[in-house]
Amino acid sequence: MDVIWDVWPGWPSQIDVNARLGPLTRSDHCSSFRIGITGSPYERASRYEASYDELIVLYESDSGQHVDDTQRYLTYYWDYCDNTMNGEEALTSPPYYLYLVRRRNLNPKATPAA
After folding, report:
1. What angle do CA 107, 80, 29 make, to 5 degrees?
2. Cα dist from 105 to 20, 30, 58, whole Å
3. How far apart are CA 7 and CA 110, in angstroms?
């Protein structure tokens, strides 16, 4: 599984997370996705290898509360994601990461010729 680091800087309130997630979750890019938090992106990616193609690290913080709150907001807003619950991982010590794991769309609609 690919792990891609596309980390957002700043406080959660300063990040337009919806604008950032839109292009990553478009149906021509992915067929399904999940939003999560972890202390170890590579270990987390290995757990998803059978179901998803890539894990994109989106946000890093020393505050577990910031990543947890951001995940809760995103899973509420993007209610068609694969999440069934929030905060599946017990976070230990910082840094903490918010990630998007997605399955690539293998059958995207053909783009009309210009």
Report:
1. 30
2. 19, 4, 20
3. 31
Q: Tens-digit pLDDT profile for the chain (114 aa)?
A: 999 999 987 777 777 777 788 889 988 888 999 999 999 999 999 999 999 999 999 999 998 888 888 888 888 888 889 987 766 566 788 999 999 999 987 765 644 444
Structure letter (DSSP) for residue 14: G
26: tokens are: 């478009």
For residues 86 and 68, the answer to whether their CB atoms sit within 8 Å is yes
Supply the pTM of this predicted model. 0.84
Phi, psi of 69 (to 5 degrees): -60, -40
